[in-house]
Amino acid sequence: xxxxxxxxxxxxxxxxxxxxxxxxxxxxxxxxxxxxxxxxxxxxxxxxxxxxxxxxxxxxxxxxxxxxxxxxxxxxxxxxxxxxxxxxxxxxxxxxxxxxxxxx
Length: 104
Fold this sequence. Notes:
The protein is mainly β and 104 residues long. It has one helix at 86-94, and strands at residues 2-7, 11-13, 22-24, 29-35, 46-51, 55-67, 72-79, 99-102.
Protein backbone atom coordinates (compact mmCIF):
# COMPACT_ATOMS: atom_id res chain seq x y z
CA UNK A 1 0.00 0.00 0.00
CA UNK A 2 1.26 3.47 -0.93
CA UNK A 3 0.07 6.91 0.07
CA UNK A 4 0.03 9.36 -2.84
CA UNK A 5 0.57 12.98 -1.79
CA UNK A 6 -0.44 15.05 -4.81
CA UNK A 7 0.35 18.70 -5.40
CA UNK A 8 -1.89 20.42 -7.93
CA UNK A 9 -1.52 23.85 -9.51
CA UNK A 10 -3.51 26.87 -8.40
CA UNK A 11 -6.38 27.85 -10.66
CA UNK A 12 -8.51 30.84 -11.54
CA UNK A 13 -12.29 30.50 -11.53
CA UNK A 14 -15.01 32.91 -12.45
CA UNK A 15 -17.71 33.22 -9.79
CA UNK A 16 -21.28 34.24 -10.55
CA UNK A 17 -21.83 37.93 -9.99
CA UNK A 18 -18.09 38.74 -9.94
CA UNK A 19 -16.32 40.74 -12.62
CA UNK A 20 -12.83 39.31 -12.18
CA UNK A 21 -11.73 35.69 -11.75
CA UNK A 22 -10.82 34.42 -8.28
CA UNK A 23 -7.59 32.50 -7.63
CA UNK A 24 -7.77 29.23 -5.71
CA UNK A 25 -4.29 28.66 -4.30
CA UNK A 26 -3.33 25.03 -3.73
CA UNK A 27 0.19 25.73 -2.43
CA UNK A 28 -0.71 24.78 1.15
CA UNK A 29 -2.73 21.60 0.53
CA UNK A 30 -2.08 18.12 -0.77
CA UNK A 31 -4.54 15.61 -2.12
CA UNK A 32 -4.06 12.20 -0.49
CA UNK A 33 -5.04 8.76 -1.74
CA UNK A 34 -4.01 5.21 -0.80
CA UNK A 35 -3.22 2.96 -3.75
CA UNK A 36 -1.68 -0.40 -4.56
CA UNK A 37 1.43 -0.25 -6.77
CA UNK A 38 3.66 -3.05 -8.09
CA UNK A 39 6.91 -1.36 -7.00
CA UNK A 40 8.27 1.80 -5.40
CA UNK A 41 8.02 4.58 -7.99
CA UNK A 42 11.17 6.57 -8.72
CA UNK A 43 11.47 10.34 -9.25
CA UNK A 44 10.42 11.17 -12.80
CA UNK A 45 8.07 8.19 -13.14
CA UNK A 46 4.60 9.09 -14.41
CA UNK A 47 1.60 7.53 -12.66
CA UNK A 48 -1.98 7.46 -13.88
CA UNK A 49 -4.37 8.28 -11.05
CA UNK A 50 -8.13 7.81 -11.01
CA UNK A 51 -10.79 10.24 -9.82
CA UNK A 52 -13.65 7.98 -8.90
CA UNK A 53 -14.22 5.25 -11.48
CA UNK A 54 -14.42 7.23 -14.70
CA UNK A 55 -11.83 10.03 -14.80
CA UNK A 56 -8.05 9.83 -14.80
CA UNK A 57 -5.03 12.13 -14.92
CA UNK A 58 -1.27 11.78 -14.87
CA UNK A 59 1.15 12.91 -12.19
CA UNK A 60 4.93 12.89 -11.96
CA UNK A 61 6.69 11.29 -8.99
CA UNK A 62 8.90 13.72 -7.07
CA UNK A 63 10.05 11.32 -4.34
CA UNK A 64 9.08 8.19 -2.39
CA UNK A 65 9.96 7.84 1.29
CA UNK A 66 9.23 5.13 3.85
CA UNK A 67 7.26 6.38 6.87
CA UNK A 68 7.56 4.10 9.92
CA UNK A 69 4.58 5.73 11.64
CA UNK A 70 2.32 4.93 8.66
CA UNK A 71 4.05 1.63 7.84
CA UNK A 72 4.02 2.52 4.15
CA UNK A 73 5.74 4.53 1.45
CA UNK A 74 4.54 8.09 0.92
CA UNK A 75 4.99 9.08 -2.71
CA UNK A 76 5.03 12.80 -3.40
CA UNK A 77 3.68 13.65 -6.86
CA UNK A 78 2.84 16.74 -8.85
CA UNK A 79 0.06 17.13 -11.37
CA UNK A 80 1.66 16.63 -14.78
CA UNK A 81 0.01 19.56 -16.59
CA UNK A 82 0.80 23.23 -15.94
CA UNK A 83 -2.83 23.96 -15.14
CA UNK A 84 -5.88 22.10 -13.87
CA UNK A 85 -9.39 22.65 -15.18
CA UNK A 86 -12.12 23.73 -12.81
CA UNK A 87 -14.06 20.54 -13.57
CA UNK A 88 -11.08 18.32 -12.68
CA UNK A 89 -10.45 20.37 -9.55
CA UNK A 90 -14.11 19.99 -8.47
CA UNK A 91 -13.98 16.26 -9.22
CA UNK A 92 -10.89 15.87 -6.98
CA UNK A 93 -12.50 17.93 -4.21
CA UNK A 94 -15.69 15.84 -4.34
CA UNK A 95 -14.09 12.41 -4.84
CA UNK A 96 -14.59 10.09 -1.85
CA UNK A 97 -11.25 8.33 -2.52
CA UNK A 98 -9.18 11.55 -2.29
CA UNK A 99 -8.65 13.54 0.93
CA UNK A 100 -7.61 17.19 1.08
CA UNK A 101 -4.88 17.62 3.69
CA UNK A 102 -3.52 21.05 4.68
CA UNK A 103 0.24 21.35 5.09
CA UNK A 104 1.22 22.32 8.60
